[in-house]
Structure formats: C-alpha cells, structure tokens
Amino acid sequence: MPKPVIASVGASALGRTDLPGRDLFSVALAEAFDELPDPADLVEAVYVGNQSESYEHQIMYGTLLAEWAGLRHVPAERVEGCAAAGALALRHAVKDVRNGEHEAVLACGVEKMTAAGTSGATDALSAAFDRAIEQRSGITAPSQYALLAKRYLHETNATEHDLAEIAVKNHANAARNPRAQFPKEIDVATVLESDPIAPPLKLYDCAPVGDGAAAILVTTAELADDLDRPQVRVAGSGASANNIAVAERDMTDIAGARIAAETAYEEAGIDATDVDFAEVHDAFTVCEALLAEAAGFAPAGTGYQSYQSPAERADGWTDVQLSPSGGLKARGHPIGATGLLQALEAYEQLTGAAGDRAVEGAETALLLNEGGVADAVTVGHVLTTAEAP
Amino acid sequence: MTDGDLDAADPRTLPGFFDALADGELLGGVCADCGQVLLPPRPACYGCGSRAVDVEPRSREGQVFSYTEVHTPPPAFEADAPYTVAVVELADGGRLLGRVAADYADVAIGASVELTVHEPTAAEREVALDYETDWPVHIFEPR
Ligand SMILES: [Zn+2]
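Output (structure tokens, whole complex):
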C-alpha cells in the first residue's frame, strides 16, 4: 500500500480579514505551492472542509475551490462535520492516497465566519445541535460546553482557575506563533474576570470567531521524494461519531475521541506514550482537559493539569505537550479550516519549521479535531517522521 | 428491517413524539435487548444496534445532571436571555436537555425538577419550521 505523507502546507491570515472565503483559499494555496509545480500539474482530487453556507450563502465549495486552483474535471467535494470538517477532508485525502486511487490530493478548509457578525456565527454554529430538542431549547456552542465544564468541575478536583491556566498556556504558545490570531500573552486574572458567556465558561475560555483557510497537500512518499519536499508521514487515521445530543452521552468520558485516538494509534503501531505533542480541539478550555484524558495522556480526572510541566502533573501522565500552536483558543478557530491548521502545525514542528515554539526532539504528533459538541464526531490523526515500525 | 410502515402517528417519529408530548405524555424508547433508554424514541438503539425498541410513557420527574446560563443566545432567543439550561436525568432513566424555569443561582446539580410543556409562543412559532409550528415546547420546573 502507498504511504501517504504531507508534502506541503499553507494558510491564510487568521482572524478578521477583508477577503471572502475563496480568496482566503487562494492565499493558503499560494503558500502551499510556493516551491511546487502548479496545482494543475499535480493535484488529482480536492476535499474542502467547510462548516456552513450561512456565512457566505455558498455551497458547492468543492467545485469552487477546484476551479480557483486551476483544476477542472477532477473529483471535488465539500466535506461537512461542523468543526471536524477539516480533519475529515484530510482523512479522505489520506485514504485516497493510501488505497492507490490518487498520488496527490489537496485537503483544504475554509470559513468566512466574520461575514455574518457574532449573532450570525452563533446561529450558524447552533445548527450543529439536535434540532428537535436542543436547538428549540435555545442552546449555543458555549452553553453546550459549559454543561460539560460544570459536570467536569463537579466530578474532579479541577477549578475555574485551572481552566483559566489552560487559556494562559495556549496564549503563551500563540505568542511564539506568527500565524496566530491572538499572538499575545494573558494572565489568569484576565480570564477569570472576563465576561460570563455560559458559566463556568467566560469569554477567555472560548476560542474566537475568525476567518481563515488552510491547504494541505497529501501525496505518496515517492512523489514527495521526487518533488524534493520535506515530508511527514500520516501513520494513522481514526474517526468516530457519537450521539448528536450531548445529554445522551457520557459527558466526562469523551468516548468518541478515545476511539478516534486509539484507532489512529493502532494504525500507526504506537501508544499514547509515544506522542511528543498533540494539537487537540480546545474550542473551550475544558476540552483540552477532557481530550488529554481521552487521548490516553492523563489518568481520568487529571486532564486539567495539561498546563503544568510534566514534572508537576499527576502520576500516570505522559510527558506530552499540548497545542504548541496556541490551540483553537489563541491560534484561531476558523471552523472548517481548523483540522487542517492542526496538521499544518504538526508539519512545521516535525520538519524543523516551528521556530522558537519548536517542541524539542519531537517526531510524533496526535491531532484530535471534533465537530458538534465534543465527540459528536471526532477525527484523530498520527503524524510522524519516525521510521515505520 | 421492519420499519417500512413508519408514519407520522408513530412515536418513533418526531411528529408522533410531539403529539403525545402535547397531551402531557413523555414517551421514551426502551431497547428490548439492552435496556437503553432513547429520548426521543427512534427506530434503532444506539447502545446495541437493535431495532426492537419499545415505546412507553416515562416519568416527567428528574434531577439536574448539569446546568448553565446562556448569556449569548441565538438571535431567535435574544429576548429571553439570560436563561438557564440543564441536562436532566429522568427518574426512570435517560437524560434530556431543556430550559429550566429558574434563575441560574437557584439551580444546583441534583436539584429536583419536573418536565412541563406549553404551546409555542408567537415568538417561538415565528422561528419554527412549517412542520414544527404546533410542536409543544418543554421546560423543566423546579419542584
Ligand atoms: Zn440496545
């Protein structure tokens, strides 16, 4: 079977931009193909992660972005899974290369969230929840995650102060990331004193609304060699859907994320202790705690220690570092692009292009990208520069 | 597969479920094979995959499992904010999300509540899809 690798990456600016979605994509694509032949000479298929047509009143994003890349008559489609759309697009590209169908596939993601204002984004995101019961009760993304956070603080020793420390850590990481939407350090008081959004979550517990696009070129290892590109092997990919309604799930054991991570580990022939760093879906601070446990990095009830150094954490923690990019919280969370921005960070880390935020000696990363509330759908990928076992 | 005759009177469909709820009856699915409670009822059990789902009236009483207060509502609910939302564990199994008719400060994990229903208000009808117009809206009252 061909070995899928990431051979190039690119992204637009993140945050409030003056470019529509397709133009954000053009910026990301230009970076990814800066040292490559034109897309028309390489790319055989396109997958586009995109959350919602309500921002730009535009579906058919597969067709549109293939055309804007100079491609025609290739298979192209939009992939939808709310905030997991990006990693789902990556997974499709990886599978196409692995099963020998294509040698080069473009996985990209785009979201123009600022087009509809804050209330438009709130409304668009609420479409991810069960319409019959949840949406009609007036639930929102922050309040869904607040239900998880309230329960997590009830069942564990974690406090609102710990959740604030997770935000502080991710902002400190973002301060060293030139791609970040919020490249600035903050302190715990700033988080704790920020506006209530859905208690116990406050404004600084929440990832921001923002625009952005990312483009990831997945190829066979042989083609990446021929193109003389630094390459990172996609050694494992797992995905799992859970109940759409958060009430019907275990709210502190994020089973879908656990299964997605374990599937990716198993394909890669590794376990959680082999992971040097992870980019996890910290749409809200509590997610990082829950996902550290689901990924097998932390014993149940101790994931909130993710901001601490390995020596300070509870027994049973691995020495993994979480979200060196700054995470969704501070790097940014343009919904459909987020899973690909996670892959971009891992590519830069593992090819020596992460500058002064580099995780020393890192060769293996886990990516966890979620859509809907928590594990309504989770996609996990293991990226590595280690030799195949 | 034996569900080819599902119609809108069947409580394993949303119209069937909400028709019963409008009469004050909360129907739940119960898997005949593994006992999983399914709220609302549906044709298949997510616990074990069985399609042997019995539909039965369930207790409307329960306890708050988790809760929060919505400060940044969707546009359709702006006039109501802030409002309290909870996940409630029902007395004979299963969990359901809904609004709570109490201030956030007066709710706690473990608090007793009872599910009530009301006809949709004019504002709720305005944001309803055509087929949802007459569906009742549920809300948990403190007990
Ligand atoms: Zn069952």
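Residues 141-155 of chain A form the longest helix (15 residues).
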